Every structure is written in structure tokens, then in C-alpha cells.
């Protein structure tokens, strides 16, 4: 029995709802056999053949009724998505029809697929590594063209090749270490520790670059959190609405209108941005406001960027000074926004130094494009514009990458002081952890957690 227990699975692969066509996927050793029992091809060509498409009808053997006119496309193993025999049934895109087709195939002996089961089979049959699986999840979930581009690049396999090459270098060193440890009497060259240190440091540097690319990929995939902060009444909620293009947040002339953080997603070119409106920072008037302000501080801790919003029409107040203090303490990069630029100016950019300043009017829309450009510029300056160089990792994979870096660091730190067998253990740990990232070395439980995020039919 193979890793998939010989079962043939089936699922509707298109979303619920009406459309011209709907797709049912069948994968497993009996895929063609169970279709043979219900599918009547129109032409003379015998079904199934090599990879080919067949027009015909599906007929329910129980009552002889035609279930739908369909096109069945066959992909014989191993040249299919899952690596097994796969049949794709293109039926009419009505949930009623698709439900009947699926029911028919299940009665013929297929089992309903679990979420992510097709992708899991593709992985188990070596058609995809785990980095490609992660990329596939992102292609399906992407909301910006940039996210799609990043994911397709990873699907092509470049990050996998980068990591496999790093792992191969470590394996090489590990094998040589083991050889000198296990066969000391053979005339194997002694380990040159200086050279080993240099090589391992280079591997670690490459791994750090890979980890940075993964952190950036995570930011692009998840959306950049940009927090609007400022004292009450400077126009944070107005600015959120202006950037969103709709009246999402409540705006009033009463300071302290926003009591809780509020998050909305906008697309800025290739980037997905999660804008967070917050309660104005000041000495709180009541308990609700105090809780809201507490949330503002917390939002700032995980921000990619803070937009410090000031009212250009009012001289800076002690509350504004508090805002500057809070932002400096939060430690995230800051872009100062001088809002209400439609009114006579009472604050200069110099007063907000050293922060870069953008003048806008949330009321008239003036300066908003410059603000968007400044945000894009900030992202680019932090390495987020070269999407082709970024990497997408799932939570388990990031953890494994961290473990690999730690083991390698321990090995490097210990070189010269620890025994070679300890060194070998650390290298082995790093190699095993890197294997988890690509999927060369991964346990079934971790696989469950990776694939459960997919929907049925994927
Ligand atoms: N003239 C002018 N008025 C603005 C502008 N932006 C906001 N306002 C006004 O400023 C007042 C406060 O706006 P809000 O968006 O509620 O300000 P806020 O910073 O969210 O305030 P809190 O939620 O209390 O912290 C409202 O009366 C807005 O109409 C602007 O660009 N120009
Ligand atoms: Mg507000």
C-alpha cells in the first residue's frame, strides 16, 4: 500500500455557485475504472486513452438517467498533478448538477477528498516540495497581483533550489566530519577547522539572507500593517476613509471619537496594506478611552510603519508631544502626515524633524497620491519591491528554518572548543531542519497541519 492507501478520491474543485462550467477532480488508481462505469463517450475512441479529452454523458447505472453532458480529461500517472491517475470532469457549473456528478462518483467507489488532499498526494508522490505547496496556497489566496507574482515565482522552484544547494553544502561537511570520526585509521584528510569555519560562516550568511527573504515574503503575503496614530481630532479616521475610498470609520468634530482600533485592507500597487485606525493618544477621559489608547500602543508594536497624523491648522500641543514620545518608544519607522493642509498652516515640517513629512488633506484628497508614493517608497527601501527574490514559508517551515540557523550558529560558536562529534550533531540538526522546510524530511503530523489550510478540491 502506498502513502495514500490506494484510495481514489473525488471532489468538486470549483467554488460553490453558478458558472458556465464546474470541475470535479478524481485521483487514484481506480479513477479511470470508476468513470468507465458511468461515462459514455460520444466518439469511437476507447476510454480512457493517454492524456486526452473525451466528450460524452454521465449516466447513473441505478436508473439509467443522464446526470450531465461532460468533458472528461484524463491524466495517466505519473504525468498528473497528484502523480496518480487523474480524471477531470468538466460539468455544467450548477451546484445541483455538480452535487449529482460527485454523488455518482462516490457511489462508484470514490471517497470524498479531504481539504488539501490533492496537494498532499502531489507532495507525497514527489510532484511538489513543501515550498511549492506553500506557494500554491498563496496563489489561491492572493489578493494583489504582486502576491500572485511572488507565489508563481516560488512555484517555479527557485527558492527550493537555493535552499537545496545550501543543504547540499552542509551535507558535504557533515559527511566529511563523520568520515574522520568513524574511520580515523583510514588516510582521510584531517578537518581544517579554519576552512570549515569559513565555509560554515558562508552557509550561515546564505541562510540569514534566505530568512530575511522569508520575513519580507511574509510581509507581502500578509499585508503591511500601517498604523494611523496621533492625538484626538487630527483626522486619522478621515485619512483612513480617504485612503479606502469609502466612509468606513466614524468621523466627528468631537475629540475622542474613535475608541477602538479598526483594521481595513487596501491595495497599493503590488502591495496589500492593512490600515489600522486607532484611538487618539492623550490622557484618557474614561475607562473605555484608556482601553482604546492601550490598544493603540499595542498596534504600534507590530506595525510595519506608523503614520503620525498631525493637524496642520493648529499649533502643536502637549498631546502632540506625547504622540512623538509614544512613537519613539514603539520603535517602528514613522512617516509624519500633516493633515488639514486645506486650512492655513500653523505647523511647519521642520517642527516634525527628523521624520519625513507628507502634507495631505483628507477632506479634499490633496496629497494622498504623494502619501501612497511615500508608503511604496518605504516598502521598496526595506527590500519589498523585488518580489522575485522573496520567499513564502508556512509557520512550521519558518520554525524549522530558525532551528537550522540556531544549530549552525552553535556549531560555528563551538568550533575550536567543542568535540567534532558534537559539531557533527549540530550539522545534522541543521540539515534535518532544512529538510523540513523543503519537505525532504517531514513527519505526517506536520503534514496534517500544512495541508489542512487548503479547501476541498485543492
Ligand atoms: N478642514 C479639514 N478638516 C478635516 C480634515 N480631516 C479631518 N477633518 C475634520 O477633523 C475632525 C476630526 O476628524 P476625525 O477623522 O474624526 O479625527 P480623528 O483623528 O480620527 O479623531 P479621534 O477619533 O477623536 O482621535 C472632523 O471634524 C473632520 O471633518 C481635513 O483634511 N481638512
Ligand atoms: Mg478617529
From TrEMBL:
* Alphabetical GO biological process terms: tRNA methylation; tRNA wobble uridine modification
Q: Which domain of life is it from?
A: Bacteria
Q: Which GO terms describe its cellular component?
A: cytosol
Query: What PROSITE patterns has UniProt attached to this entry?
Result: G_TRME (PS51709)
Ranges in a coiled coil: none
- The record places domain TrmE-type G at 223-380
Q: Which residues bind (6S)-5-formyl-5,6,7,8-tetrahydrofolate?
A: 25, 88, 127, 458
Q: What is known about its subunit structure? A: Homodimer. Heterotetramer of two MnmE and two MnmG subunits.
Question: What is the cofactor note?
Answer: Binds 1 potassium ion per subunit.
In the Enzyme Commission scheme, what number(s) does this protein have?
A: 3.6.-.-
Q: Which residues bind Mg(2+)?
A: 237, 258
Q: What is its main location?
A: cytoplasm
The answer on whether this UniProt entry bears the keyword Secreted reads no
Pfam families according to UniProt: MMR_HSR1 (PF01926), MnmE_helical (PF12631), TrmE_N (PF10396)
Q: What is this protein called?
A: tRNA modification GTPase MnmE
**In which residues is K(+) bound?**
233, 252, 254, 257
Q: Which cofactor does it need?
A: K(+)
Tell me what organism the protein belongs to.
Answer: Candidatus Ozemobacter sibiricus
Amino acid at each position: 500500500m502506498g502513502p495514500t492507501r490506494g484510495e481514489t478520491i473525488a471532489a468538486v474543485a470549483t467554488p460553490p455557485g453558478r458558472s458556465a462550467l464546474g470541475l470535479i477532480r478524481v485521483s487514484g488508481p481506480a479513477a479511470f475504472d470508476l468513470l468507465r462505469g458511468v461515462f459514455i463517450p460520444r466518439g469511437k475512441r476507447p476510454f480512457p486513452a493517454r492524456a486526452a479529452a473525451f466528450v460524452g454523458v454521465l449516466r447513473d447505472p441505478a436508473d439509467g438517467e443522464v446526470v450531465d453532458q461532460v468533458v472528461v480529461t484524463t491524466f495517466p500517472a505519473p504525468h498528473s498533478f497528484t502523480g496518480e491517475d487523474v480524471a477531470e470532469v468538466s460539468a455544467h457549473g450548477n451546484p445541483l448538477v455538480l452535487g449529482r456528478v460527485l454523488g455518482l462518483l462516490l457511489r462508484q467507489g470514490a471517497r470524498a477528498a479531504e481539504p488539501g488532499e490533492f496537494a498532499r498526494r502531489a507532495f507525497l508522490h514527489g510532484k511538489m516540495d513543501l515550498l511549492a505547496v506553500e506557494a500554491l496556497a498563496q496563489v489561491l489566496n492572493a489578493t494583489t497581483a504582486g502576491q500572485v507574482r511572488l507565489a508563481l515565482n516560488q512555484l517555479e522552484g527557485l527558492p527550493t533550489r537555493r535552499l537545496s544547494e545550501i543543504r547540499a553544502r552542509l551535507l558535504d561537511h557533515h559527511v566529511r566530519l563523520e568520515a574522520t570520526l568513524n574511520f580515523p585509521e583510514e588516510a582521510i584528510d584531517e578537518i581544517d577547522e579554519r576552512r570549515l569555519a569559513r565555509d560554515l560562516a558562508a552557509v550561515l550568511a546564505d541562510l540569514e539572507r534566505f530568512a530575511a527573504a522569508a520575513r519580507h515574503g511574509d510581509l507581502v503575503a500578509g499585508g503591511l500593517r500601517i498604523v494611523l496614530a496621533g492625538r484626538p481630532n487630527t483626522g486619522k479616521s478621515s485619512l483612513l476613509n480617504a485612503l479606502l475610498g469609502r466612509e468606513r470609520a466614524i468621523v466627528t468634530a468631537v475629540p475622542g471619537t474613535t475608541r477602538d482600533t479598526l483594521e481595513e485592507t487596501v491595495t497599493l500597487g503590488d502591495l496589500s496594506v492593512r490600515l489600522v485606525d486607532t484611538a487618539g493618544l492623550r490622557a484618557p477621559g474614561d475607562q473605555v478611552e484608556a482601553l482604546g489608547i492601550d490598544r493603540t500602543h499595542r498596534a504600534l508594536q507590530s506595525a510595519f510603519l506608523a503614520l503620525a497624523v498631525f493637524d496642520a491648522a493648529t499649533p502643536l500641543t502637549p498631546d502632540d508631544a506625547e504622540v512623538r514620545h509614544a512613537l519613539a518608544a514603539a520603535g517602528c519607522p514613522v512617516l509624519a502626515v500633516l493633515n488639514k493642509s486645506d486650512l492655513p498652516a500653523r505647523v511647519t515640517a521642520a517642527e516634525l524633524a527628523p521624520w519625513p513629512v507628507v502634507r495631505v488633506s483628507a477632506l479634499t484628497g490633496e496629497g494622498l497620491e504623494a502619501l501612497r508614493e511615500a508608503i511604496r517608497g518605504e516598502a521598496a527601501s526595506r527590500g519589498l519591491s523585488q518580489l522575485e527574490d522573496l520567499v513564502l514559508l508556512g509557520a512550521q517551515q519558518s520554525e524549522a528554518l530558525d532551528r537550522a540557523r540556531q544549530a549552525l550558529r552553535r556549531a560555528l560558536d563551538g568550533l575550536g572548543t567543542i568535540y567534532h562529534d558534537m559539531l557533527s550533531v549540530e550539522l545534522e540538526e541543521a540539515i534535518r531542519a532544512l529538510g523540513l522546510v523543503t519537505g525532504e524530511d517531514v513527519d505526517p503530523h506536520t503534514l496534517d497541519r500544512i495541508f489542512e489550510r487548503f479547501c476541498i478540491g485543492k
